[in-house]
Amino acid sequence: MTNKIIEFVVLDDEQNPLLNAEGWPTLKQAPIAKDIGQLVDMGKVTHIDKFAALQSELEQYQWAAEYLNYLKQAKAVELENSELETVTGEDGELIEPTPKPLPEEPERPDVKTVEQVLEPYSHKIAKSRGITFKGLDISLTETNQNGLSALKSALELATEFGADDQFFPIKFNAETCEGNKVLVLDDESEFKQFGLAFVLARKAFFE
């Protein structure tokens, strides 16, 4: 029965299951995964594919632990049932004991792909990854939108007073999935190109 979980079992030098004092196989150390939902909520999605793969692997290890526990419970029930004896009732009639039912065998879940693990969070991940501009992934956040609006107002004011030639290059402090990054906008054309790409992406995100 342990053949079903052999890939999760520690093997000795002769490739036999390493048994504990009770005669049960020892399971390998399960991978340490992080809460995908929490990472996404925090905007930490740079390496989210890696953590999704670990989550998928962890689910298989959790099943293996459940299956080993099932084997232990099944053996205990079988032992208890084997010790049941027929008893004689008050009227001399033989009463057959009722054996306990065996526990239900846990079904192994399908191995999830990274895409399947992340599917419930795809919308939020897309927002965090946002658009790529000059090598930076700019998140589609309200903070970035407000920052762009402030820059636009500042540019309009500089133009009004004939100081637009002194406005660029300008540094935009952008929120990204790797934290705040500085995006340097060299001229008005680049500023408008970035602003349009951001606005269109954010509009599509909320539709």
What would the keywords be for this entry?
207 residues; alpha+beta; two-stranded antiparallel sheet; 6 strands; 44% helix; elongated
Put simply, the count of helices is 6
- The total of beta strands comes to 6
* Structural class category: alpha+beta
The largest pleated sheet is described as: 2 strands, antiparallel
Rg for CA atoms: 31 Å
Helical proportion, percent range: 40-55%
Q: Label the overall shape.
A: elongated
Low-confidence stretches: none
What strand line-up does the widest sheet have? Answer: 1-2
Task: Tell me about this structure.
- The chain has six helices and six strands; from the N terminus they run ααββααββαββα.
- It is an alpha+beta fold.
- A two-stranded antiparallel ribbon has the order 1-2. A two-stranded antiparallel sheet has the order 3-4.
- A hairpin with a 2-residue loop joins strand 3 (131-133) and strand 4 (136-138).
- The mean pLDDT is 93.
Q: What's this model, at a glance?
A:
The chain has 207 residues and is α+β, with helices and mostly antiparallel strands. The chain is built from six helices and six strands, in the order ααββααββαββα. 44% of the residues lie in helices and 12% in strands.
